[in-house]
Specification:
Blueprint: H1 11-14, E1 22-26, E2 32-33, E3 49-53, H2 57-60, H3 64-74, H4 89-92, E4 111-113, H5 116-122, E5 125-130, H6 140-157, E6 163-168, H7 172-183, E7 188-195, H8 201-209, E8 213-217, H9 221-234, E9 238-239, H10 245-251, H11 253-261, E10 269-274, H12 279-293, E11 302-308, H13 313-317, H14 349-363, E12 368-373, H15 375-386, H16 394-408, E13 417-422, H17 430-437, H18 477-495
Parallel strand pairs: 5-13, 6-7, 6-9, 7-8, 10-11, 10-13, 11-12
Antiparallel strand pairs: 1-2, 1-3, 4-5
Helix pairs in contact: 6-7, 6-10, 7-8, 10-12, 11-12, 12-14, 15-16
Length: about 500
């Protein structure tokens, strides 16, 4: 749709221009830092940073109803730089000019309602938001679109050159970082660190295919993260993990899309999200807060974070009801099918504490909860979801298990509708499905196959067939006819099919 065809009062707002004044704000000592160079932690106290728009109040001058019309009409534009997460440019990265925006098709993933059968089984109306339909097949692309657009902006401004982007990963971050960095070659190159034999073959193939330099090191994700942090502190590299505040900024778009999907009415809505490094849940919280502060939404939805009992430091922190007595302690993780959430010391924990407190205060009631689920529940619910028409990854299964647990805890009411975050494509984790179907999960996963959920192919080759087709040796004539008839008859017998009348 062409610009002149939009309502006259909206036309001036449709093409966003650089605006605002972004700074890094330290969550520890409250110091401010300019965004002219890459920063991940406070140089003074070492705490994590949030990006803050010092001119955010200018957005409040536009009525919430007008913002809704801007975003809904803007979505109809055929301009790539505002088709992804930067549809919400004024909230995601207002200082970034459109010619610096990197758009690879990320964002605006569908929200799919569960069928009646599954909703009846679970006891609530719920949806999956399919983040696996992003370009690298995970939600990480939202953050990478923001982080790499910022890096491209710094390159255009002459602040940096010959950038080497690095990240630690359990799979999805490396795939996304390598993809977006590859798009910006030769100005940006990438290298990723993965825990040796802790990443699925599908996830390993992605950064390799994008040309990244891939290192596998002993240990788990937390060990990879320590090495990457050391690299970013001592060498000229661009860190792309969730310590990067620009990553969090892009992931806030998940909140904005949910608001838009439900026509900005978030009354009786619940968002369920897995917690790994805690970047995603903090982004979602902050996104809803921004829309609430500007009147775009009038209600803050409930947010439920989910952790496996094999990696649950955030859950343990909130077990203490008295905020004054809470103390965060990292945990030693055990193997988990929710690999991206297998993190015992989330770098965004200070953001969690700060934003959860702010969110609950603005809502004037507790609106953020954290539940713990088992590995068995994650796998069972993932398989059940996918048997009912979804493409949920293990983290989507974790969210569905979390919804069930939250319902048992009385945190969700019958009239509420729930959106589950399926963070990646199910095919990335197909190896865990194979282990379940073949009942060969290593003991440390604590997963036992339920026979009613197991599925495997059946070989149909009738014993009385004297000739069967082989590659390069096809059958013909009477032999082919007999083969087709015998195989069809055996399949019909297994399926219990009835012959057509008159057949």
């Amino acid at each position: 749709m062409k610009l002149q065809d939009f309502p006259k009062d909206i036309q001036p707002h449709l093409i966003p221009r650089p605006s605002g004044r972004l700074i890094y704000r330290c969550l520890g000592c409250n110091r401010e830092y300019g965004i002219e160079k890459l920063l991940y932690t406070c140089p003074a106290c070492g705490q994590v940073l949030l990006l803050e728009d010092l001119e955010f109040d200018r957005l409040k001058a536009v009525p919430g109803a007008t913002w809704r019309r801007i975003f809904d009409f803007r979505r109809m534009l055929n301009i790539p730089s505002v088709k992804g997460v930067y549809l919400f440019h004024e909230f995601v990265g207002p200082v970034i000019p459109l010619n610096a925006v990197v758009y690879l098709g990320e964002g605006h993933t569908p929200v799919i309602e569960a069928n009646d059968r599954l909703q009846e089984q679970v006891g609530f109306r719920f949806y999956f938001k399919n983040e696996g339909q992003n370009p690298s097949a995970s939600f990480k692309d939202r953050g990478m679109a923001s982080a790499l657009s910022y890096i491209r902006y710094l390159i255009q401004q002459g602040h940096v050159s010959d950038v080497l982007a690095v990240c630690a990963s359990t799979g999805d971050t490396s795939a996304s970082a390598a993809l977006y960095a590859a798009y910006l070659q030769p100005d940006v190159k990438s290298s990723v660190l993965l825990p040796h034999k802790k990443v699925t073959p599908q996830q390993l193939a992605q950064p390799l295919g994008s040309g990244a330099v891939v290192f596998e090191i002993p240990g788990v994700f937390d060990d990879c993260m320590k090495v990457v942090e050391s690299l970013s502190e001592n060498y000229n590299v661009a860190l792309l993990n969730s310590k990067n505040a620009w990553r969090i900024l892009g992931q806030e778009s998940y909140s904005y899309e949910i608001a838009q999907w439900f026509d900005y009415d978030l009354e009786d809505k619940v968002i369920v999200v897995p917690i790994g490094n805690a970047g995603n849940i903090t982004a979602i919280i902050n996104g809803f807060l921004k829309f609430y502060d500007t009147g775009i939404i009038e209600t803050l939805p409930k947010i439920i974070g989910v952790q496996s009992g094999h990696a649950d430091p955030v859950y343990r922190y909130y077990l203490e009801p008295d905020e004054a007595k809470r103390r965060f302690s990292p945990v030693h993780v055990k193997p988990s099918v929710a690999q991206a959430a297998m993190i015992g010391n989330p770098v965004s924990m200070p953001r969690v504490i700060h934003l959860v407190r702010t969110y609950n205060e603005k809502a004037r009631m507790q609106k953020v909860f954290v539940v713990q689920v088992t590995e068995q529940e994650i796998m069972d619910w993932q398989l059940i979801a996918n048997r009912n028409g979804h493409v949920a990854c293990t983290h989507g299964g974790e969210c569905l298990a979390g919804l069930v647990r939250a319902g048992q805890n009385g945190w969700i009411q019958k009239q509420e509708s729930v959106v589950l975050d399926s963070t990646a494509h199910a095919l990335k984790f197909s190896g865990f499905q194979d282990m379940y179907f073949e009942d060969r999960f290593p003991k440390e996963y604590e997963v036992t196959s339920r026979p009613e959920l197991v599925n495997s192919p059946r070989l149909v080759c009738p014993a009385d067939l004297k000739q069967i087709p082989e590659p390069g040796r096809p059958l013909s004539g009477e032999a082919l006819e007999r083969y087709v008839q015998r195989v069809a008859a055996e399949i019909a017998g297994i399926l219990g099919l009835k012959r057509k009348s008159g057949g």
